[in-house]
C-alpha cells in the first residue's frame, strides 16, 4: 500500500483510538448516587453486565488500535488485518447497540414490564453513559470507514490488475 | 466469480434467509399474558422498541437476502454487494446485541435499578424471544461467513494477479 493510502487509515485509527479510550474511561468513571425512601442507591457501570461488556469491548478496541498504529504494516498481513478490523467493527457495534437498549430503559423505563426510569434519580450517571455511547459510536464509525476504505483499495487494485 | 465459488455463497444466503425469516416470524408472534394483582399484563413485541427494531432489521435482512438470491450476479456489482453485505451484518449484529441486553433484564432483572425479571410471569413470551434470538444469531453468523468468504476470494484473486 502506498503512503498516500496509508495516511487516511492512520488518521482514522488515531480517531478510533481517541474515541475508544474516551468511551472506556467515561463509562468506567460513571458514578452517581441517590437516596430513595431512605435507601441509598448507587449507580455505576458494574450494576449492569451490558456496561461491563461495553467497557471490555472498547478497551480491546483501544489496545488493538494502538498495536496497529505502531505495527509495521506489511501488505502480506493485509488479509488478516482486514478480517480483524471487521471483527472489531462488529464488536464495537454490538457493545453500543446493547448499551443503547439498556440506556433507553434507564431513560424512559418500560411501563409494560414495570421497569421505572432511573435517570431522574442519577442524572450524572446517565450523562456519563450518554457521553461514553457517543464516543463509542465515533470509534465504531471510524472502523466502518476504515473497512470501506480498505475494501475500496483492495477492489480497485484488483480491477487494475485484471 | 466461478460457479464453484458462487455455490457456497448461495447456500449461506439460503441459510441466512431461512434464519432471518424465522427470527422475524417468531418474534412477531411472541405473545403471553399473566395476571398480577388482578391486573392483566400482556407481553408482546410492541412493548419494547428493541423488539420492534429486531423485527425490522430481520425483515430487511430477509428481503435483501431474497433479492440477492434471485439477483443475476454480475462481477461488476461485487464491490457494491460486499459493502451491502457488510452493512447487513452490522445491522443484524446490532439488533441481536440490543435484544440480548433487554432479554437479560427480562430474565434476570436488575436489582440495582429495581427492574424485576418478567420471564417467570410470561414464560411463553420469553421462549419466543429466545428462539427468535437464536434464529437471528444464525442469520448474523451466515452473513459473517459470507463476508469472510467474499474477502478471501477477493484477496486471493488480488494475490494471483500481482
Tell me what you see in this structure.
Chains A, B: InterPro entries: CASP/CASPL, CASP_dom, CASPL. Chains A, B: Homodimer and heterodimers. Chains A, B: It is a multi-pass membrane protein. Chains A, B: The chain crosses the membrane at residues 53-71, 80-103, 132-151. Chains A, B: Residues 1-23 form the signal peptide. Two copies of one chain form a homodimer. With 162 residues, chain A is mainly α. Chain A has one domain (3-161). Chain A is built from four helices and two strands. Chain A has helices spanning 3-28, 49-70, 78-108, 123-161; strands at residues 31-36, 39-44. Chain A has a two-stranded antiparallel sheet. In chain A, a hairpin with a 2-residue loop joins strand 1 and strand 2 (39-44).
Main β-sheet, spatial strand arrangement of chain A: 1-2
- N-to-C SSE string of chain A, H for helix and E for strand: HEEHHH
| Helix content, binned percent of chain A | over 70%
Uncertain runs of chain A are none
Largest sheet of chain A: 2 strands, antiparallel
The pLDDT mean of chain A sits at 89
User: How far from one another are the termini of chain A?
Assistant: 18 Å
Total of domains of chain A: 1
Give me the Rg of chain A, rounded.
Answer: 19 Å
Helix/strand/pairing class of chain A, anyone? mainly alpha
Strand content of chain A: 5-15%
Amino acid at each position: 500500500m502506498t503512503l498516500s493510502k496509508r495516511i487516511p487509515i492512520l488518521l482514522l485509527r488515531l480517531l478510533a483510538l481517541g474515541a475508544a479510550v474516551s468511551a472506556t474511561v467515561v463509562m468506567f468513571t460513571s458514578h452517581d448516587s441517590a437516596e430513595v425512601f431512605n435507601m441509598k442507591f448507587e449507580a455505576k457501570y458494574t450494576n449492569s453486565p451490558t456496561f461491563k461488556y461495553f467497557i471490555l469491548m472498547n478497551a480491546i478496541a483501544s489496545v488493538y488500535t494502538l498495536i496497529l498504529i505502531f505495527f509495521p504494516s506489511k501488505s502480506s498481513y493485509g488479509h488478516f488485518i482486514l478480517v480483524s478490523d471487521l471483527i472489531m467493527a462488529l464488536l464495537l457495534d454490538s457493545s453500543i447497540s446493547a448499551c443503547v437498549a439498556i440506556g433507553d430503559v434507564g431513560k424512559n423505563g418500560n411501563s409494560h414490564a414495570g421497569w421505572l426510569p432511573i435517570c431522574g434519580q442519577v442524572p450524572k450517571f446517565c450523562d456519563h453513559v450518554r457521553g461514553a455511547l457517543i464516543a463509542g459510536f465515533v470509534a465504531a464509525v471510524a472502523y466502518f470507514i476504515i473497512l470501506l476504505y480498505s475494501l475500496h483499495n483492495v477492489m480497485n487494485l484488483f480491477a487494475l490488475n485484471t
